[in-house]
Specification:
Blueprint: E1 2-6, H1 11-14, H2 18-26, E2 30-35, H3 40-45, E3 49-52, H4 57-71, H5 79-107, E4 111-115, H6 121-128, E5 132-135, H7 143-159, E6 175-177, E7 194-196, E8 219-223, H8 231-242, E9 247-251, E10 268-271, H9 276-279, E11 283-288, H10 292-300, E12 305-307, H11 314-323, E13 327-329, H12 337-349, H13 351-366, H14 370-377
Length: 381
């Protein structure tokens, strides 16, 4: 059967969906992916034919920066409540829907699988009478945030002669939840059917640095992902790691320049990109922005973390990780070199953090695999 995946282009939106797409392909289904042109080569490298769809390139970046600036007056942890509806609902959904409807008409999939921030697919599915499922990229988005996004896209539904659905139609079919059940955030009362799905790490392919080799000292991995990776964010953290008896690996993202960081401590190695599946098995501690991909992949290996959240769902992840006892968290204003060095030092020597992280790892291991969930989805058509 033909199954269409749709997503926003960020690594953190595409990568969590790849294991399920591969599982469905392995069961004999034909998979294609609708995503902005910029991301098509990356999705194709993962093994899927693509349909270019939605706003991308400089236009997308400018729109994101504009929405971010409009939310900048709010405290960092409150900005996602304004940014998510404005950007993913107001900016991304209309052009995505315009490109998606012809794809659905021409290719005629029997199922749509959309990432939780891609709000055009539920409407396209309703218009064409096709079932769809929403695939999480991290924690379940707060109900209020999704309700605001639904209000923003409601005119799209009305323009096509449909009554707007609650939460933009995202939960009208099963919600594929990759978050460990014991760490769930907030109420799930607005989500009628939840299908757990084990988060399986996936890495982009292409030119990468030399392999990671574990040395005699603990390895600490530092990343701010592929979006929130300004050079100034790294300085305090690298200063802190330079004070410790560790080896540190820092990645600045595929589009960034390691040389922009200037001189680094002798125990710190800086690269653009190293696959996390190659890094994390060697790590004693992970220090990150707490993006869902890094956060869940580290928990899946039982690694304690220092969370330095910056935006988006990162504050939710940091809070839930702290509640589980598996992480320490520093807010942006608290993340000085002294505080980071102290926190990493604690994570290295206090066993409670590793014990808690391994409890979450064991829970993740029991969640249904992508192949098991693929079998469940076959009952939808």
């Amino acid at each position: 059967m033909r199954i269409l995946f749709t997503s926003n282009p960020g690594f953190g939106h595409v990568h969590p969906m790849v294991p399920l797409a591969r599982a469905l392909a392995g069961r004999g289904h034909e998979i294609r992916w609708a995503v902005v042109q910029d991301a098509c080569p990356r999705v194709e490298a993962a093994g899927f034919r693509t349909f270019p769809a939605g706003i991308g390139g400089d236009e997308r970046r400018a729109a994101f920066d504009r929405c971010l600036a409009e939310a900048s007056s709010l405290p960092p942890e409150a900005r996602p409540e304004r940014l998510f509806p404005a950007f993913f609902g107001g900016v991304c959904a209309p052009p995505m829907l315009a490109d998606l409807l012809p794809v659905v008409d021409d290719w005629q999939p029997v199922l749509l699988v959309n990432d939780a921030s891609e709000l055009a697919a539920p409407l396209a599915a309703h218009l064409r009478g096709v079932p769809h499922v929403t695939h999480a990229f991290g924690a379940l988005l707060p109900a209020g945030r999704m309700a605001e996004a639904a209000d923003v896209v409601a005119p799209l539904w009305q323009a096509h002669g449909l009554e707007p659905r609650p939460y933009a139609g995202s939960y009208d079919y099963p919600y594929l939840d990759i978050y460990p059940p014991s760490m769930r955030f907030g109420s799930y009362a607005h989500v009628p059917v939840v299908q757990p799905l084990r988060p399986v790490p996936f890495d982009a392919v292409g030119d990468v640095a030399a392999p990671v080799v574990a040395g005699d000292r603990p390895l600490v991995y530092l990343t701010f992902g592929t979006v929130f990776n300004r050079p100034d964010l790294f300085y305090a953290a690298m200063d802190a790691l330079g004070r410790l008896e560790v080896d540190a690996l820092v990645t600045v993202g595929p589009a960034a320049d390691p040389a922009a960081l200037g001189a680094v401590p002798p125990n710190v190695r800086v690269e653009r990109y190293v696959p996390q599946t190659a890094v994390l098995p060697h790590c004693a501690v992970v220090v990150s922005h707490t993006g869902s991909g890094t956060f869940l992949a580290s928990l899946g290996l039982g690694i304690p973390q220092l969370c330095l959240p910056q935006a988006a769902d990162q504050f939710i992840n940091a809070g839930q990780g702290a509640a589980a006892g598996a992480v320490l968290t520093l807010a942006p204003a608290e993340a000085t070199a002294d505080a980071i060095a102290h926190a990493v030092g604690r994570l290295l020597v206090e066993p409670a953090f590793g014990d808690a992280a391994r409890r979450v790892r064991d829970e993740i291991d029991t969640m249904p695999s992508p192949d098991e969930v693929a079998a469940v989805l076959e009952d939808l058509w």
